[in-house]
Amino acid sequence: MDGLATSFQKRAKQAGIELDKDQIEKFLLFLQELKEWNRKFNLTAINDEEEILVKHFIDSLSCLLGVPSKIYQKIRKIIDIGSGAGFPGIPLKIYQPRFELTLLEATMKKVEFMRYISGKLGFERSLKVIHGRAEKYGRNGEYREKYDLAVSRAVSNLAILAEYCLPFVKIGGIFISQKGREIKGELQKAGKAIEVLGGRINKIIPYKLSLRGEELERNLVVIDKVEKTPEDYPRRTGVVVKRPIR
After folding, report:
1. For position 167, which CATH number holds?
2. Is residue 71 assigned to a domain?
């Protein structure tokens, strides 16, 4: 195992994540392909290897901190909304191959990359990449309220993300939103939207990423799906952003 692989395995272990040789190899393949594609297309602003390992891979795997141990083994179907270049969805799939993963992304070049890398990683049969918007697919009966877990690390505020994501989650499932350090005001503004959409905040989990001596503070917002999402939601494209539920 080379230096980069050893360093990544050590960092993952410090975050409470045990990775075997096959998983490490898949992550490093993902890393190299991401860097190669990023030379041609703007998939991510992060191109430094160490930053990719920490800010993309370790941060993505940190989503699992939000899954209660009593339901972890029951989690099968996952949707990653606004997946970008595949985060957090693909790292979760590498870590736990039994997950049936759907990646939803509106930018075609990112969709093409995710389809390419899923093939390189051998995930063609249990990973689906969709080009489109959450407002459309959240109303589609094939996807609506069909998932045990929805995840997103998109930068939209939580009220908007709740309307994008909660319609995909079945009752008894959870939605995990990856957020930065400051979330108090955002949580207060999103309370009504979460309730209207059938959700209930379960807990907020703070965690830290270590990079070159710096501690990067993050939070997971864990939302339980307790009721069906009303048929009026999600609203059409544009309305969700212009008029968030308050």
Report:
1. 3.40.50.150
2. yes
Amino acid at 236: R
pTM: 0.95
Q: Give the C-alpha distances (Å, rounded to integers) separating 159 from 143, 187, 191, 240, 242.
A: 21, 8, 8, 9, 11
In a domain, 236, yes or no: yes
Tens digit of each residue's pLDDT (9 = 90 or more) over 195-242: 999 999 999 999 999 888 788 899 999 999 999 999 999 999 889 999
Q: Which amino acid belongs to residue 5?
A: A
The total of structural domains in the chain comes to: 1
For 180-204, the pLDDT digits (tens) are: 988 988 999 999 999 999 999 999 9
Owning domain of residue 120? 65-242
pLDDT digits (tens, 9 = 90+) for 136-147: 999 999 999 999
Domain assignment of residue 36, yes or no: no
Distance CA 53, CA 75 (A): 25
- Type of residue found at 178: Q
